[in-house]
Amino acid sequence: MTHRVPVRVADRDAFDAIIDARSPSEFALDHIPGAINCPVLDDDERRIVGTLYVQVGAFEAKRVGGAMVAANLARHLRERFAEYPASWRPLVYCWRGGMRSASMVTWLRMVGWDAQQLAGGYKSFRHYVVAQLAQLCPRLKLQVVCGATGSAKTRILQALAAKGRQILDLEHCASHKGSLLGALPGVEQPSQKRFETLIVSALDGMDLERTIYVEGESARIGRLTVPVPLIQRMRASPCIEIQATPQARLEYLLHDYAYLGDDADALADRLGMLKQLQGGETVQRWQQWAHEGNLPLLFDELISRHYDPHYQRSQARNFHAWEQRRAIQTDDLSEQGIAAIAQAVIDLD
Predict the structure, then answer these.
(1) Residues 302 and 170 grouped into a single domain
(2) Are residues 208 and 299 in the same domain?
(3) Residue 283 dihedral angles phi and psi, to the nearest 5°
(4) pLDDT of 267 over the 90 cut
(5) Cα 235 from chain centre
(6) Is beta strand 224-225 parallel, antiparallel or unpaired with respect to 220-221?
(7) pLDDT > 90 fraction of the chain, expressed in percent and rounded
(8) Which of 71, 146, 193, 305 could be 216's S-S partner, Cβ–Cβ 3.0 to 4.6 Å?
(9) Is 1 within a domain?
(10) pLDDT-derived band of residue 313, with 50, 70 and 90 as boundaries?
(11) CATH number for the domain that contains residue 119
(12) Alpha helix (H) ranges present in 15-57?
């Protein structure tokens, strides 16, 4: 067998497939973009082997675990890997480049595939993500799109992308709209590590010499934290403010958040988190409107009494160039109006 040099994270694109040999729960927490999960031990099997290691010893754990690994590898060979040609070149990783990925690589090579193991496993990829955030973020040519809640900033970013501009959609990466009521129905937010992986994956495909448009987020999106190097770069970047009329914003919110009316109890529970800020009487009124399905009155007061005061206080504090911001005024947040705003943003740049 020829001498093999260690495969690093930067070499991953040279392979036909990336195989994550870890358990499904580890894979769900975070994984290399594009990887497929083919566990050599599932979550229950890992627990069994770990318990044997502690209570009986390493030999018994390896004996039982080895049988499990062999059975799982045999299943993958029969099912997941059955159609690949002899020229297939997979890259395999586990937690830190240890026995799980090594055992899979051994079997795949015995079949005849040029399988290789990622040096350092997922841990090396995680170090890569952290390093990329630190190295790339200070170089980003950002234009921060700001605006009060309901200004259709995410839709404007999407319209900019449709016009060939580079965008970094943090709310898409976070699976959350960023506001108090921004949780997406039936969609769980990713882990913090997965959030950061998705950001780096988006940046990896961008031309850093060109402008990247990003929404003016706070430091937290739902339960996730925007990485410090990125939030620092956003805070120091020029801003474009979308100044939409209150009526246009209300109409947009009623359309964009219409699904909140489908679960009045959940909406009322979330509003209850504002009692300390808004007082029990106000929140009780909002909760009543939520149960009645009266979203127009609810959103109108949320805009005037919660979102707008918070927005006005936070912008000058968070964005260093806020006083030099450029503004785009609009009373139209329809699909056509958003396309026109996107063009106006491009024209400002």
Answers:
(1) yes
(2) yes
(3) -65, -35
(4) yes
(5) 20
(6) antiparallel
(7) 94
(8) 146
(9) no
(10) confident
(11) 3.40.250.10
(12) 24-29, 43-55
Does residue 117 form part of some domain? yes
Set 94, 137, 146, 239: catalytic member: 94
| Strand, helix or coil for residue 141 | coil
Q: Which candidate, 289, 311, 324, 340, places its Cα nearest to that of 217? A: 311
For residue 116, the cross-strand partners are 91
Q: 42-93: per-residue pLDDT in tens? A: 999 999 999 999 999 999 999 999 999 999 999 999 999 999 999 999 999 9
Is 58 within a domain? Answer: yes
* Residues in contact with 43: Cβ distance below 8 Å, sequence separation at least 6, in sequence order: 23, 24, 25
Instruction: Write the pLDDT tens digit of every residue in 270-293.
Output: 999 999 889 999 999 999 999 999
The pLDDT value recorded for residue 349 is: 78
Do residues 172 and 298 both lie within one domain?
yes
Residue 146 annotated among the catalytic residues of the structure:
no
267 class by beta-carbon count within 10 Å (0-12 exposed, 13-18 middle, 19+ buried): buried
Helix (H, G, I), strand (E, B) or coil at 23: coil
CA 245/CA 252 separation, integer angstroms: 11
Query: Is the pTM of the predicted complex or chain greater than 0.90?
Result: yes
Residue 3 lies in a domain: no
Find residue 329's DSSP bridge partners.
243
Q: Among the residues of 209-306, which ranges form H helices?
A: 228-235, 246-256, 264-271, 275-278, 280-292, 295-301
Give the integer Cα–Cα distance in Å for 164 and 145.
17
Residue 3 has pLDDT above 70, yes or no: no
* Claim to verify: residue 49 and residue 153 sit in the same structural domain: no
With a cut of 60, say whether residue 1 has pLDDT above it. Answer: no
Q: What tens digit of pLDDT does each residue of 18-43 get?
A: 999 999 999 999 999 999 999 999 99
* Strand 326-330 with 239-244, pairing: parallel
Q: Single out the residue of 163, 140, 147, 155 nearest to residue 212, CA to CA.
A: 140
Q: Give 349: exposed, middle or buried? Use CB within 10 Å, 0-12, 13-18, 19+.
A: middle
